[in-house]
Amino acid sequence: MLTMFLRSRELLLLVAIAALLVVVTWRFPGFITLANLANVYNDTSILIILALGQMVVILTRCIDLSMAANLALCGMVAAMLNFYVPGLPVLLLVLIAVVLGTALGAINGLLVWKLDIPPIVVTLGTMTIFRGTIFLLSGGAWINAHQMSDLFKSLPRGIVAGMPVLSWLSLAVIIAMLVVMRRTPTGRAFYAVGGNPHAAVYTGLDVGYTRFKAYCLSGGFAGLAGYLWVSRYAVAYVDIAAGFELDVVAACVIGGISIAGGVGTVPGAVLGALFLGIIKNALPVVNISPFAQMAISGTVIIIAVAVNARAERRKGRVILKRAEHVA
Amino acid sequence: MLHDTTTSRIAPAITLEGISKSFPGVRALSDVSLTLYPGSVTALVGENGAGKSTLVKILTGIYKPDGGSIRINGTAVSFPTAHAASKAGVTAIHQETVLFDDLSVAENIFIGHAPKTRFGFVDWAFVNEKARALLKEIGADIDPSIRLRDLGIANRHLVAIARALSIDAQVVIMDEPTAALSHKEIHELSELVEKLKAAGKAILFISHKFDEIFRIADRYTVFRDGRMVGEGLISQTTEDQLVRMMVGRDVGQVFPKKQAEIGEPVLTVAGYRHPTEFEDINFELRRGEILGFYGLVGAGRSEFMQSLFGVTKPSAGAVRIDGNIAVIRTPSEAIAQGIVYVPEERGRQGAVIGLPIFQNVTLPSLGQVSRKGFLRMAREFALAREYTARLDLRAASLDQDVGTLSGGNQQKVVIAKWLATKPKVIILDEPTKGIDIGSKAAVHAFMSELAAEGLSVIMVSSEIPEIIGMADRVIVMREGRIVGRFEREELTAERLVRAAAGIGAVPGEGA
């Protein structure tokens, strides 16, 4: 187990993160304080939750490009309910956001499962539909901070045992996902379906249904993140989190989740998200312009993909040798 | 050696001498010779696995031979790449044509060697005109500008042939060209072969259909177990002689067949049919029995098994397990009813590369190793250890990725996975295809052991020695139908080959 960990991509990422921290601290010593690191984690919480949802979808050889739009729609619905129906308890609103997100994810899943449409097409389509629906619901208007109840805004910021609720929530999601991926038949099915769909069929796993479940999960996480986003930034409008789905995919890729499916771990996705989170938080404090930040993030993603591709190519050579043997 | 008068005066178009090719653990071709003459059709016959495909791959530059020489018009040549072979004038038309669906017919004919204008662009006007002329030459009524996707199988073959002519091929290999054709299309194809002959091409014709061979070919070459065992003129041989050459072998391999006690029927299949793959499948499988399914590749055996296992839906048919009607709509229902299927393509359908060995083994038994919806790793390891040990799996640790194992050991993991579900019926589709001799023997011994323990085994195999060595009873399928049933005592290689190829009974025999 230990040697496996030492050779793993997770360790490589940890080393990369440590190196990044060293560089940033050299320029700005205040960055490495516990309080600041806790802040960075809190800032990255939403990305972590989304990345874990995306991870499951990618594991099954699919992709969910509609996550950010799903997030925005669920966030808008929660904010509008909070504004127009003031009596509703906030926890009920959170629940509604999660259920709605799951339902939207289920639409993606059904289209992929029953109609066999390529996942990238399905979620590209629903991404636009979800955004359009927000416009139809809100008429293009914003829900601003003063239109939201205090509890609605303050719940994720509330401090419990020294940490904001938002951080606790993402931690809970990480632990839940660790258990699901390692300890449940469904988690195992995600890996098997992505690793070898043909073999999965003969093993009695329903490939389409497993993908459907993955989309429901990513949708549910997007719904939860929708409420968290809207309450944290205290604003809801059509374009919130626009383009954020790419950050989520990037976090997965950096975290070693193979786009080819079947390979990836919860710690990997979390570390990938943290890596992006640290870059986004650290670069401004060391005075790097936003444009250079984008270029740096992009470079990191390409390096990560190149490292993954190299690892997979090595595997390919072994298989080829064997293929010759079989022929 | 040969005393024929028709071709001895003509110089051979291509001569292969002493060709050998080995793969790790398998000797695919040893010291094989083959001569093709211009304007003549040579039929290459042999069982599945006799080395025909390997030879075609050597001829087309896909494999490099370990030894031997190839001469074209008397000059020694070598084909380091597929491109070199096609430049030398050797081309193959495959069973499933390897062409580009979304390109036009003309583009397909000229891709890779399209004539260019003086500016270095493709000369489309010339390409289209030349394609039209070529198609006309072979009597094909095809518009060169339409997409290949919109053509039927027969017309695709015509395009492939036009392509062969466009590179001015002297040697044309037709690898089971009629396998997917209707009667009318086959007739058209044989007219075309005549035209190619008249144009002076040397043709290598690979087919399992004897009626075709005798109608089309002028000469024959027979392969068996990677050796050339006979050649001559078709006019001087008979079906019987060819069959005997194909199967006549030394019994070099000893099969570890144990006599199992055969009990009551476990599985009864009645009236299974599918709109396009198979029909009228009826049989009974008894406890402790190994039932062989023999047939040529494409006879519908795997398709039927997949349907029995719930992967595809049959259009009609009933299954009884232990006398009770069983409804099987999905593989998971089949597994629950005690039927498991070890598919043929180990890589594609068998092991999940990326998952460790133990997780591969427990994949269909996740319910068994969980409690209250959570997987118990200790139980997983226990189950995996029990069954991999029974199969004598050689692995450093059950934690290691299944992709790091050899082919034979991967096969053991796949079989262990199925045994762990404690099935009543196990379907093994080509269980030893492509694995080394040692692993083969282990799989055979294990199969025998399973039957002795009261499991019922269906073994789909295209290897005659394996069928004869292991099966208690054999069903032969041909073109989606059962065409023969043999008890163990009646099994001979000749009978199996005749039934599978659709030739009548051995002369002087009733059955």
UniProtKB/TrEMBL annotation, chain A:
Top-level taxon: Bacteria
Entry keywords, A to Z: Cell membrane, Membrane, Transmembrane, Transmembrane helix
Keyword match Transmembrane: yes
Main location: membrane
TM stretches of this protein: 43-60, 67-85, 91-113, 120-143, 155-180, 248-279, 291-311
InterPro entries: ABC_transp_permease
GO terms of molecular function: transmembrane transporter activity
GO cellular component: plasma membrane
UniProt membrane topology term: Multi-pass membrane protein
Subcellular location: Cell membrane
Protein name: Branched-chain amino acid ABC transporter permease
Native source organism of the sequence: Metarhizobium album
Lineage of producing organism: Bacteria, Pseudomonadati, Pseudomonadota, Alphaproteobacteria, Hyphomicrobiales
